[in-house]
Amino acid sequence: MAHLHLPDGVLPFYLWAAGYAVAAAALFGLWLKFRRARNLLVFARAGFFAALMVVAMSLHVAPLGYHLNLAALAGIVAGPAAALLACFLANVILALLGHGGVTVVGLNTVTLGAEALAAFALFRAFAFVKATWPRAFVATTLALVAGTALAFGVVAVGTRDFDEVVHRGRGAAVELRLFDGSAEHVGEAHAAAESGRGEVSTGRLAALFFGLGAVGWVLEAAVTATVAAYLKKAAPRLIP
Amino acid sequence: MFFEDLDYWATTGRGWLHRVPAWAKLLWLAGVVAALVLIYDFAFYAALYALLLAFLFTSRLPARRILAASAYPLVFLVLVFLSVRGLALFAVLYFAVRVLAVALTVLLIVATTPVPRLLAAGRFLPRFLVAGLFLTYRAMFILADVARDVRVAYRLRGAPGWRRPRRFVVNTGRAVGYVVLAALARSEDAAAALKVRGFDGRMYL
After folding, report:
1. Does residue A72 sit within a domain?
2. Closest CA to A89 of A23, A29, A16
3. What is the C-alpha radius of gyration for chain A, rounded to an integer number of angstroms?
4. CB spacing of B176 vs A68 below 8 angstroms
5. Which of A70, B102, B143, B169 is the most buried (most CB within 10 A)?
6. φ, ψ at A20 (rounded to 5°)
């Protein structure tokens, strides 16, 4: 629920190319591992967990498009390799459904994958906590905070040139008049560009990201912790 | 679920866009992505969006549902706009039309091309990724059925909503837990099936 699907057309090329590069490096590592070990169970688990994430993300549980993303649960239950592959597969499928962009599959994989890996590491680090629910709740919350911080960093860096991108689009402002005959659009665009307005306020962006994200952290962590506690009873071999 | 509808439209549709080969559609998508990097003209994206709307209204697809789905990325855009000081109307229109044009391109492609055919056209991708995507695509429908059954059972038993938040979270957690168990059991079956069929990382699509 804390995960935000970045769309196409907003972030600059260098950023989404970097996202693809990082995701490709991680996937290459996974491919080498898969080739060496021929671990079909990890592969099949990744496929089914990705499908589970897509199904979960298709069901909105609260207003404003809040939905479960289950990345942290994938990290806790399926392990880092399967979870990372599942994050990539889920993001590709989601991009095909218009839920997140095609160009930002790499970046979305990095942010979602970071949540899964953080949840995996934190859940193991908190092994001294005997009760599964609080252990999973804290691990998931911290992982989601880390994922949101990463997504915020990406968006903050990506929208640094917001006014410049709009300024470049302004080249067509004259044509806009031909389309709808509205002189106001042209005037506003010029005024904005000339006065250098249209800057993203990092503080306001952070307040929105973390403010809205906090609701999602609590809901997702509570559901993940309940699932982990349920699995601990129903199938203890799955929860270390 | 929306992906089931998309699959249904792609496999049963008879519009002109359904007859366009998958490779041509992927080439079109590549062109739109290249445009995102190279072209910054508002007029270009407005014209592209108008063209895509024409495609949508002539391809015998449920236009309203596809338009609604293509608008989902605007949720993210609204967050960015809310954090902009001195936001101009032009900036709103410019980014909205860019985002909507790409989202509608992708949805038009997926709503008119069965996913296995798209994956078959994506032979340039690493084999194990194509196989993973195909496995995910198959599993989505299996798990959607399980999730639907669990939801019906949950509602038949009284399903407390947000008025009892603690109960709601506990029940949702248990319902998801059941679906997770089903997913893991089926993934073990799938792994065994892949093994006996001598799976070498390639799916023959």
Report:
1. yes
2. A23
3. 21
4. yes
5. A70
6. -65, -40
A186 lies in some domain: no
Q: What is the CATH number of the domain that holds A107?
A: 1.10.1760.20
Rounded Cα distance between A197 and B93, Å, is: 16
Q: How many CA atoms lie within 13 A of A30 on its CB side?
A: 28
Cβ contacts of B2 on chain A, cutoff 8 Å: 58, 97
> Does A175 map to a domain?
no
Residue where the block lists tokens 């994956």: B119
Q: Of B179, B53, B176, B162, which Cα lies nearest the Cα of B105?
A: B53
Q: Which residues, numbered 9 to 68 in chain A, qualify as contacts with chain B under a Cβ-Cβ cut-off of 8 Å? A: 9-10, 13, 27, 31, 34-35, 40-41, 43-52, 54-56, 58-59, 61-62, 64-65, 68
Which positions in chain B touch A85 (Cβ < 8 Å)? 132
pLDDT digits (tens, 9 = 90+) for A18-74: 999 999 999 888 888 777 766 788 888 899 999 999 988 877 766 666 778 889 999
In a domain? residue A2: no
Mean pLDDT of A100-129: 91
Amino acid at B84: V
Measured CA to CA, the distance from residue A42 to residue A30 in angstroms comes to 10
CB neighbour list of residue A126: distance below 8 Å, 6 or more residues apart: A135, A138, A139
Angle, vertex CA A74, rays to CA B203 and CA B128, nearest 5: 20
What token pair was written down for A88?
């990539």
- Degrees, nearest 5: CA angle B109-B110-B115: 125
Cβ of A55 within 8 Å of Cβ of B179? The answer is yes
ipTM: 0.88
Number of domains in chain A: 1
Of the candidates A51, A168, A192, which has its C-beta nearest B136's C-beta?
Answer: A51
Residues spanned by the domain of A134: 13-160+200-238
